[in-house]
Design brief:
By secondary structure, this protein is mainly α. 81% of the residues lie in helices and 2% in strands. It is built from eight helices and two strands, in the order ααβααβαααα. Helix 2 runs parallel beside helix 4. The longest helix has 37 residues.
Length: 241
């Protein structure tokens, strides 16, 4: 198993490098945009604020790259490993482990960038109020949720892509468009205190108010179901060389 993880890790090295590059690029661009907002957009205002926009954009970029590259490399690594005589169980286990490692290293890079951005920002924005939004990044539940959640999402989407091919891409694109279309409706419904939307908001607040161990158990149960679904799809996947 150790040698298989090492081999598969080398195969996924490009994905890790892409995530690290995204952290630097998106983080730097976000920091520059925050500088422009404070120095130009808020020029002359008595009460200005700043936050770690670079770290936030780095997270968004890593999620986008992790989902896209993870889904595509899932099929490529499946074809490679199974065609070389590895079982589907071996592929599935090593893919999940390397995904967790990649996500952990990507999250570590984000946290390091957040610390650096905060240090530089406090020197640059001495007279501007600081909004400490990065406390969310350093919450261990968020870190675990990102590392494991992204791995589970990668496995599920990769298995769906293995099963349905480009159809899943159309499905994701259509879902994204529907979300964009209904965002304004959801916002308006929340403003009008729509019963369904308010119930969903209440359920979300209720989840956040639970003890952390219960939150972990609920997320673990959901992850287990999704991983099982991904395995069932992968177990019947056909090799396409």
């Amino acid at each position: 198993m150790r040698e298989q993880i090492k081999t598969h890790g080398a195969f996924c090295r490009e994905e890790l490098f892409a995530q690290l590059a995204i952290v630097l690029i998106f983080g730097f661009l976000g920091s520059l945009f925050m500088l422009f907002i404070v120095k130009v957009g808020m020029a002359g205002e008595e009460e200005g604020t700043w936050f770690l926009l670079g770290a936030l954009m780095a997270v968004i970029g890593c999620v986008m790259v992790g989902i896209t590259m993870g889904m595509l490399s899932y099929v490529e690594s499946f074809n490679m490993m199974v065609s070389m005589g590895r079982t589907r169980k071996e592929f599935y286990a090593t893919n999940f482990v390397t995904a967790v490692i990649n996500n952990f290293l990507g999250m570590a890079a984000i946290l390091i960038f957040a610390v650096l951005e905060r240090g530089v920002g406090r020197l640059v924005y001495k007279d501007v109020e600081y909004k400490a939004l990065e406390t969310v990044f350093f919450d261990f539940r968020v870190i675990i949720g990102y590392v494991l959640g992204m791995a589970v999402l990668r496995m599920l989407l990769g298995a769906l892509f293995l099963k349905f091919g480009n159809k899943i891409m159309w499905g994701l694109g259509g879902s994204g468009m529907l979300i964009c279309v209904f965002l304004s409706y959801i916002e308006q419904a929340a403003a009008d205190k729509n019963k369904i939307v308010m119930c969903l908001i209440g359920a979300g607040k209720g989840f956040l108010n639970l003890a952390w161990i219960l939150q972990v158990l609920i997320m673990a149960a959901i992850s287990a179901v999704l991983l099982l679904l991904a395995w069932l799809l992968t177990r019947r996947g056909a090799v396409k060389v």
